Protein backbone atom coordinates (compact mmCIF):
# COMPACT_ATOMS: atom_id res chain seq x y z
CA UNK A 1 0.00 0.00 0.00
CA UNK A 2 2.89 2.34 0.68
CA UNK A 3 4.28 1.77 -2.79
CA UNK A 4 0.88 2.32 -4.29
CA UNK A 5 0.44 5.59 -2.46
CA UNK A 6 3.77 6.90 -3.66
CA UNK A 7 2.19 7.74 -7.02
CA UNK A 8 0.00 10.26 -5.25
CA UNK A 9 2.78 12.31 -3.70
CA UNK A 10 4.16 14.80 -3.99
CA UNK A 11 2.13 16.96 -6.27
CA UNK A 12 4.04 19.62 -8.11
CA UNK A 13 3.85 23.17 -6.77
CA UNK A 14 0.85 25.17 -7.90
CA UNK A 15 0.23 28.86 -7.90
CA UNK A 16 -1.39 30.01 -4.67
CA UNK A 17 -4.86 31.58 -4.53
CA UNK A 18 -5.87 34.87 -6.11
CA UNK A 19 -3.49 37.75 -5.36
CA UNK A 20 -4.52 39.65 -2.27
CA UNK A 21 -3.67 43.06 -3.77
CA UNK A 22 -4.53 44.80 -7.04
CA UNK A 23 -8.13 43.83 -7.67
CA UNK A 24 -9.22 43.75 -11.28
CA UNK A 25 -12.37 45.59 -12.29
CA UNK A 26 -13.20 42.65 -14.54
CA UNK A 27 -14.85 39.44 -13.40
CA UNK A 28 -13.68 36.18 -14.93
CA UNK A 29 -14.23 36.92 -18.64
CA UNK A 30 -16.48 33.98 -19.50
CA UNK A 31 -18.83 34.75 -16.59
CA UNK A 32 -18.97 38.38 -17.62
CA UNK A 33 -19.76 37.50 -21.20
CA UNK A 34 -22.54 35.11 -20.23
CA UNK A 35 -24.04 37.59 -17.76
CA UNK A 36 -23.98 40.47 -20.21
CA UNK A 37 -25.31 38.31 -23.03
CA UNK A 38 -28.32 37.22 -20.95
CA UNK A 39 -29.22 40.85 -20.21
CA UNK A 40 -29.29 41.65 -23.91
CA UNK A 41 -32.18 39.26 -24.45
CA UNK A 42 -32.59 36.97 -27.43
CA UNK A 43 -30.88 38.43 -30.47
CA UNK A 44 -31.69 37.30 -34.03
CA UNK A 45 -29.56 34.33 -35.06
CA UNK A 46 -27.65 36.31 -37.70
CA UNK A 47 -26.67 38.96 -35.11
CA UNK A 48 -25.38 36.60 -32.41
CA UNK A 49 -21.87 36.20 -33.84
CA UNK A 50 -21.45 39.95 -34.26
CA UNK A 51 -22.76 40.58 -30.75
CA UNK A 52 -20.36 38.02 -29.30
CA UNK A 53 -17.39 39.46 -31.17
CA UNK A 54 -18.19 42.99 -30.01
CA UNK A 55 -18.43 41.84 -26.39
CA UNK A 56 -15.08 40.05 -26.66
CA UNK A 57 -13.43 43.08 -28.27
CA UNK A 58 -14.83 45.40 -25.59
CA UNK A 59 -13.52 43.28 -22.76
CA UNK A 60 -10.13 42.71 -24.36
CA UNK A 61 -9.60 46.44 -24.93
CA UNK A 62 -10.57 47.17 -21.34
CA UNK A 63 -8.16 44.60 -19.93
CA UNK A 64 -5.34 45.79 -22.17
CA UNK A 65 -5.93 49.39 -21.08
CA UNK A 66 -5.85 48.41 -17.41
CA UNK A 67 -2.59 46.46 -17.85
CA UNK A 68 -0.99 49.39 -19.66
CA UNK A 69 -1.85 51.60 -16.71
CA UNK A 70 -1.08 49.00 -14.00
CA UNK A 71 1.37 46.37 -15.41
CA UNK A 72 1.77 44.69 -12.01
CA UNK A 73 -1.93 44.07 -11.45
CA UNK A 74 -1.59 40.29 -11.21
CA UNK A 75 -5.33 39.63 -11.00
CA UNK A 76 -5.93 41.43 -14.29
CA UNK A 77 -2.84 39.86 -15.89
CA UNK A 78 -3.90 36.34 -15.02
CA UNK A 79 -7.51 37.05 -16.04
CA UNK A 80 -6.26 38.27 -19.40
CA UNK A 81 -4.09 35.16 -19.76
CA UNK A 82 -7.12 32.92 -19.17
CA UNK A 83 -9.10 35.13 -21.55
CA UNK A 84 -6.52 34.55 -24.30
CA UNK A 85 -6.49 30.82 -23.67
CA UNK A 86 -10.16 30.01 -22.99
CA UNK A 87 -12.17 32.70 -24.82
CA UNK A 88 -10.01 33.66 -27.78
CA UNK A 89 -8.33 30.22 -27.92
CA UNK A 90 -5.16 32.00 -28.98
CA UNK A 91 -2.43 29.48 -29.86
CA UNK A 92 0.22 31.96 -28.72
CA UNK A 93 -1.36 32.67 -25.35
CA UNK A 94 1.65 31.34 -23.40
CA UNK A 95 4.09 33.60 -25.26
CA UNK A 96 1.74 36.58 -24.92
CA UNK A 97 1.36 35.96 -21.19
CA UNK A 98 5.14 35.81 -20.83
CA UNK A 99 5.38 39.14 -22.61
CA UNK A 100 2.96 40.62 -20.07
CA UNK A 101 5.03 39.26 -17.18
CA UNK A 102 8.20 40.69 -18.76
CA UNK A 103 6.54 44.10 -19.11
CA UNK A 104 5.46 43.94 -15.48
CA UNK A 105 9.02 43.17 -14.34
CA UNK A 106 10.42 45.99 -16.48
CA UNK A 107 8.05 48.30 -14.63
CA UNK A 108 9.09 46.92 -11.21
CA UNK A 109 11.90 44.30 -11.23
CA UNK A 110 11.49 43.57 -7.50
CA UNK A 111 7.72 43.17 -7.42
CA UNK A 112 7.37 39.98 -5.35
CA UNK A 113 3.89 38.99 -6.52
CA UNK A 114 4.94 39.30 -10.17
CA UNK A 115 8.08 37.21 -9.66
CA UNK A 116 6.14 34.55 -7.79
CA UNK A 117 3.28 34.33 -10.29
CA UNK A 118 5.69 34.31 -13.21
CA UNK A 119 7.69 31.45 -11.65
CA UNK A 120 4.51 29.44 -11.09
CA UNK A 121 3.39 30.14 -14.66
CA UNK A 122 6.58 28.91 -16.35
CA UNK A 123 6.60 25.85 -14.06
CA UNK A 124 3.01 24.88 -14.78
CA UNK A 125 2.58 25.81 -18.44
CA UNK A 126 6.11 25.54 -19.83
CA UNK A 127 7.54 22.83 -17.54
CA UNK A 128 10.63 25.03 -17.44
CA UNK A 129 11.92 24.08 -14.00
CA UNK A 130 15.25 25.89 -14.21
CA UNK A 131 13.59 29.12 -15.33
CA UNK A 132 11.06 28.80 -12.49
CA UNK A 133 13.88 28.17 -10.01
CA UNK A 134 15.74 31.26 -11.20
CA UNK A 135 12.65 33.41 -10.69
CA UNK A 136 12.04 31.98 -7.20
CA UNK A 137 15.68 32.69 -6.28
CA UNK A 138 15.38 36.24 -7.60
CA UNK A 139 12.32 36.74 -5.38
CA UNK A 140 14.15 35.33 -2.36
CA UNK A 141 16.92 37.88 -2.80
CA UNK A 142 14.36 40.53 -1.82
CA UNK A 143 12.16 38.40 0.48
CA UNK A 144 14.33 35.61 1.94
CA UNK A 145 11.47 34.31 4.11
CA UNK A 146 8.85 33.99 1.33
CA UNK A 147 7.17 30.77 2.46
CA UNK A 148 5.74 29.61 -0.88
CA UNK A 149 8.82 30.47 -2.94
CA UNK A 150 10.95 28.37 -0.56
CA UNK A 151 8.39 25.57 -0.60
CA UNK A 152 8.04 25.48 -4.39
CA UNK A 153 11.83 25.45 -4.78
CA UNK A 154 11.93 22.55 -2.30
CA UNK A 155 9.31 20.68 -4.33
CA UNK A 156 11.35 21.13 -7.53
CA UNK A 157 14.47 19.79 -5.80
CA UNK A 158 12.44 16.94 -4.31
CA UNK A 159 10.30 15.75 -7.21
CA UNK A 160 12.22 16.97 -10.29
CA UNK A 161 15.94 17.18 -9.48
CA UNK A 162 16.15 14.44 -6.80
CA UNK A 163 18.37 16.79 -4.77
CA UNK A 164 17.07 15.64 -1.42
CA UNK A 165 19.55 17.46 0.81
CA UNK A 166 18.67 20.82 -0.79
CA UNK A 167 14.95 19.98 -0.71
CA UNK A 168 15.09 19.25 3.02
CA UNK A 169 16.95 22.49 3.71
CA UNK A 170 14.37 24.52 1.76
CA UNK A 171 11.39 22.81 3.40
CA UNK A 172 12.98 23.48 6.80
CA UNK A 173 13.29 27.19 6.00
CA UNK A 174 9.79 27.43 4.57
CA UNK A 175 8.14 25.86 7.60
CA UNK A 176 10.66 26.98 10.23
CA UNK A 177 10.85 23.27 10.98
CA UNK A 178 11.60 22.76 14.67
CA UNK A 179 9.87 19.50 15.66
CA UNK A 180 11.54 19.50 19.09
CA UNK A 181 9.27 22.35 20.20
CA UNK A 182 6.39 20.90 22.26
CA UNK A 183 3.65 22.71 20.32
CA UNK A 184 5.23 22.74 16.86
CA UNK A 185 2.58 20.47 15.33
CA UNK A 186 -0.29 22.81 16.18
CA UNK A 187 -2.03 25.48 14.13
CA UNK A 188 -1.52 28.02 16.92
CA UNK A 189 2.26 27.69 16.70
CA UNK A 190 2.26 28.32 12.95
CA UNK A 191 -0.23 31.16 13.25
CA UNK A 192 2.25 32.90 15.55
CA UNK A 193 4.71 32.97 12.62
CA UNK A 194 2.36 35.25 10.67
CA UNK A 195 4.10 38.56 11.37
CA UNK A 196 5.05 41.66 9.41
CA UNK A 197 8.39 39.98 8.60
CA UNK A 198 6.90 36.66 7.47
CA UNK A 199 3.49 36.72 5.81
CA UNK A 200 2.15 33.18 5.69
CA UNK A 201 0.03 32.17 2.69
CA UNK A 202 -3.61 31.11 2.75
CA UNK A 203 -4.64 28.07 4.78
CA UNK A 204 -5.01 25.92 1.66
CA UNK A 205 -1.59 26.93 0.33
CA UNK A 206 0.04 26.28 3.71
CA UNK A 207 -1.67 22.89 3.83
CA UNK A 208 -0.08 22.14 0.45
CA UNK A 209 3.39 23.03 1.74
CA UNK A 210 2.90 20.74 4.74
CA UNK A 211 1.57 17.98 2.49
CA UNK A 212 4.65 18.11 0.24
CA UNK A 213 6.99 18.03 3.23
CA UNK A 214 5.03 15.12 4.68
CA UNK A 215 5.41 13.30 1.35
CA UNK A 216 9.14 14.01 1.46
CA UNK A 217 9.43 12.40 4.91
CA UNK A 218 7.16 9.57 3.75
CA UNK A 219 8.86 8.71 0.45
CA UNK A 220 12.44 9.88 0.77
CA UNK A 221 13.35 9.80 4.46
CA UNK A 222 11.01 6.89 5.27
CA UNK A 223 10.29 8.55 8.61
CA UNK A 224 6.68 7.42 8.83
CA UNK A 225 5.94 8.71 12.33
CA UNK A 226 7.16 12.21 11.42
CA UNK A 227 5.30 12.06 8.10
CA UNK A 228 2.09 11.27 9.97
CA UNK A 229 2.57 14.26 12.29
CA UNK A 230 3.08 16.58 9.33
CA UNK A 231 0.14 15.10 7.40
CA UNK A 232 -2.09 15.51 10.46
CA UNK A 233 -1.12 19.20 10.74
CA UNK A 234 -1.78 19.65 7.02
CA UNK A 235 -5.21 18.14 7.54
CA UNK A 236 -5.90 20.74 10.25
CA UNK A 237 -5.47 23.41 7.58
CA UNK A 238 -7.37 21.53 4.88
CA UNK A 239 -9.64 18.78 6.26
CA UNK A 240 -10.93 17.97 2.75
CA UNK A 241 -7.60 17.04 1.16
CA UNK A 242 -8.04 13.57 -0.36
CA UNK A 243 -4.31 13.43 -1.18
CA UNK A 244 -3.39 13.89 2.49
CA UNK A 245 -5.97 11.35 3.66
CA UNK A 246 -4.74 8.89 1.05
CA UNK A 247 -1.12 9.18 2.16
CA UNK A 248 -2.02 8.94 5.84
CA UNK A 249 -3.96 5.77 5.07
CA UNK A 250 -0.97 4.30 3.23
CA UNK A 251 1.26 4.92 6.27
CA UNK A 252 -1.30 3.32 8.57
CA UNK A 253 -1.48 0.29 6.25
CA UNK A 254 2.30 -0.16 6.40
CA UNK A 255 2.05 0.00 10.19
CA UNK A 256 -0.65 -2.73 10.01
CA UNK A 257 -3.29 -0.41 11.48
CA UNK A 258 -5.81 -1.66 8.96
CA UNK A 259 -9.00 -0.40 10.61
CA UNK A 260 -7.65 3.15 10.83
CA UNK A 261 -6.35 2.97 7.25
CA UNK A 262 -9.76 1.75 6.06
CA UNK A 263 -11.48 4.69 7.80
CA UNK A 264 -9.08 7.15 6.13
CA UNK A 265 -9.64 5.72 2.67
CA UNK A 266 -13.40 5.67 3.21
CA UNK A 267 -13.34 9.33 4.24
CA UNK A 268 -11.24 10.22 1.17
CA UNK A 269 -13.54 8.39 -1.25
CA UNK A 270 -16.58 10.11 0.26
CA UNK A 271 -14.95 13.49 -0.30
CA UNK A 272 -13.99 12.64 -3.90
CA UNK A 273 -15.67 9.55 -5.37
CA UNK A 274 -13.75 10.04 -8.65
CA UNK A 275 -10.20 9.94 -7.30
CA UNK A 276 -8.67 6.95 -9.09
CA UNK A 277 -5.49 6.87 -6.96
CA UNK A 278 -7.42 6.61 -3.69
CA UNK A 279 -9.69 3.84 -4.97
CA UNK A 280 -6.64 1.94 -6.24
CA UNK A 281 -4.87 2.20 -2.89
CA UNK A 282 -8.08 1.24 -1.08
CA UNK A 283 -8.17 -1.90 -3.26
CA UNK A 284 -4.55 -2.69 -2.34
CA UNK A 285 -5.50 -2.45 1.34
CA UNK A 286 -8.42 -4.83 0.73
CA UNK A 287 -6.00 -7.35 -0.84
CA UNK A 288 -3.73 -7.12 2.21
CA UNK A 289 -6.74 -7.84 4.41
CA UNK A 290 -7.75 -10.81 2.25
CA UNK A 291 -10.94 -9.11 1.04
CA UNK A 292 -10.55 -9.96 -2.64
CA UNK A 293 -14.17 -9.29 -3.60
CA UNK A 294 -13.91 -5.78 -2.13
CA UNK A 295 -10.61 -5.27 -3.94
CA UNK A 296 -12.22 -6.27 -7.25
CA UNK A 297 -15.11 -3.86 -6.57
CA UNK A 298 -12.71 -0.97 -5.91
CA UNK A 299 -10.52 -1.81 -8.93
CA UNK A 300 -13.59 -1.80 -11.16
CA UNK A 301 -14.57 1.61 -9.77
CA UNK A 302 -11.19 2.92 -10.90
CA UNK A 303 -11.59 1.41 -14.36
CA UNK A 304 -14.92 3.20 -14.75
CA UNK A 305 -13.15 6.46 -13.95
CA UNK A 306 -10.06 5.71 -16.05
CA UNK A 307 -10.08 2.46 -18.09
CA UNK A 308 -6.32 2.72 -18.65
CA UNK A 309 -5.21 3.61 -15.11
CA UNK A 310 -1.84 1.85 -15.18
CA UNK A 311 -1.33 0.99 -11.46
CA UNK A 312 -4.84 -0.49 -11.35
CA UNK A 313 -4.43 -2.51 -14.55
CA UNK A 314 -1.14 -3.95 -13.26
CA UNK A 315 -2.29 -4.69 -9.70
CA UNK A 316 -5.72 -5.99 -10.70
CA UNK A 317 -4.19 -8.15 -13.43
CA UNK A 318 -1.77 -9.73 -10.95
CA UNK A 319 -4.60 -10.35 -8.47
CA UNK A 320 -6.74 -12.01 -11.16
CA UNK A 321 -3.84 -14.24 -12.18
CA UNK A 322 -2.55 -15.21 -8.74
CA UNK A 323 -5.76 -15.53 -6.72
CA UNK A 324 -8.46 -16.42 -9.24
CA UNK A 325 -6.41 -17.89 -12.10
CA UNK A 326 -8.48 -15.68 -14.39
CA UNK A 327 -6.18 -15.79 -17.42
CA UNK A 328 -8.49 -13.82 -19.70
CA UNK A 329 -8.96 -11.05 -17.16
CA UNK A 330 -5.22 -10.84 -16.40
CA UNK A 331 -4.39 -10.78 -20.11
CA UNK A 332 -6.93 -8.01 -20.69
CA UNK A 333 -5.36 -5.85 -17.97
CA UNK A 334 -1.82 -6.36 -19.32
CA UNK A 335 -2.92 -5.51 -22.86
CA UNK A 336 -4.50 -2.26 -21.68
CA UNK A 337 -1.18 -1.13 -20.24
CA UNK A 338 0.80 -2.24 -23.29
CA UNK A 339 -1.58 -0.41 -25.60
CA UNK A 340 -0.47 2.86 -24.00
CA UNK A 341 3.10 1.84 -23.09
CA UNK A 342 4.47 -1.08 -25.17
CA UNK A 343 7.65 -1.25 -23.08
CA UNK A 344 6.06 -1.38 -19.62
CA UNK A 345 8.12 -4.09 -17.94
CA UNK A 346 5.56 -5.27 -15.36
CA UNK A 347 2.87 -5.62 -18.03
CA UNK A 348 5.25 -7.60 -20.27
CA UNK A 349 6.22 -9.91 -17.40
CA UNK A 350 2.58 -10.33 -16.34
CA UNK A 351 1.51 -11.14 -19.89
CA UNK A 352 4.43 -13.62 -20.18
CA UNK A 353 3.25 -15.35 -17.00
CA UNK A 354 -0.26 -15.67 -18.45
CA UNK A 355 1.22 -17.26 -21.59
CA UNK A 356 3.37 -19.53 -19.40
CA UNK A 357 0.35 -20.79 -17.44
CA UNK A 358 -1.45 -21.43 -20.73
CA UNK A 359 1.49 -23.50 -21.94
CA UNK A 360 2.27 -21.11 -24.80
CA UNK A 361 6.06 -21.36 -24.57
CA UNK A 362 6.79 -19.33 -27.71
CA UNK A 363 4.67 -16.39 -26.57
CA UNK A 364 6.08 -16.50 -23.03
CA UNK A 365 9.67 -16.53 -24.27
CA UNK A 366 8.99 -13.65 -26.66
CA UNK A 367 7.40 -11.52 -23.93
CA UNK A 368 10.16 -12.24 -21.39
CA UNK A 369 12.74 -11.32 -24.06
CA UNK A 370 10.93 -8.07 -24.81
CA UNK A 371 10.85 -7.25 -21.09
CA UNK A 372 14.60 -7.78 -20.65
CA UNK A 373 15.43 -6.10 -23.98
CA UNK A 374 13.55 -2.97 -22.93
CA UNK A 375 14.95 -3.09 -19.41
CA UNK A 376 18.34 -4.82 -19.40
CA UNK A 377 18.96 -4.01 -15.72
CA UNK A 378 15.48 -4.65 -14.35
CA UNK A 379 16.08 -7.25 -11.65
CA UNK A 380 12.45 -8.45 -11.52
CA UNK A 381 12.30 -9.04 -15.29
CA UNK A 382 15.63 -10.88 -15.27
CA UNK A 383 14.59 -13.08 -12.34
CA UNK A 384 11.27 -14.02 -13.97
CA UNK A 385 13.01 -14.81 -17.24
CA UNK A 386 15.64 -16.90 -15.45
CA UNK A 387 12.98 -18.84 -13.56
CA UNK A 388 11.10 -19.45 -16.80
CA UNK A 389 14.24 -20.71 -18.55
CA UNK A 390 15.07 -22.93 -15.55
CA UNK A 391 11.59 -24.49 -15.66
CA UNK A 392 11.87 -24.94 -19.43
CA UNK A 393 15.20 -26.78 -19.05
CA UNK A 394 13.69 -29.06 -16.39
CA UNK A 395 10.79 -29.88 -18.72
CA UNK A 396 13.24 -30.75 -21.50
CA UNK A 397 15.28 -32.94 -19.15
CA UNK A 398 12.14 -34.78 -18.07
Automatic annotation (TrEMBL):
Residues 1-23 are annotated as: Disordered. The keyword Repeat applies. Pfam families: TPR_2, TPR_7. Keywords: Repeat, TPR repeat. SMART domains: TPR (SM00028). Gene3D superfamilies: Tetratricopeptide repeat domain. It comes from the Eukaryota. TPR repeats lie at residues 242-275, 276-309. InterPro entries: TMTC_O-mannosyltransferase, TPR-like_helical_dom_sf, TPR_2, TPR_rpt. Residues 1-18 have a biased composition (Low complexity). PANTHER family: PROTEIN O-MANNOSYL-TRANSFERASE TMTC2 (PTHR44216:SF3). This is Uncharacterized protein.
Amino acid sequence: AAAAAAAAAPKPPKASGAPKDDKSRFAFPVEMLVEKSSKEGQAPAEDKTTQWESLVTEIERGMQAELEEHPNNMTCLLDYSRFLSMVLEDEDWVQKTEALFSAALEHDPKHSETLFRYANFVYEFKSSYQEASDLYHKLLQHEPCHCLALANLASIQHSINDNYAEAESLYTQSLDFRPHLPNYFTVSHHSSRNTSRIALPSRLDYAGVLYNFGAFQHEVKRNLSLAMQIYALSLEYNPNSTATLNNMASVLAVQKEFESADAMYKRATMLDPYDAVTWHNYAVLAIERGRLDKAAEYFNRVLKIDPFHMPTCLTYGRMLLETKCDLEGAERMCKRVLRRNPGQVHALVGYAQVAQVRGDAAMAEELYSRATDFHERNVAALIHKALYLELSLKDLAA
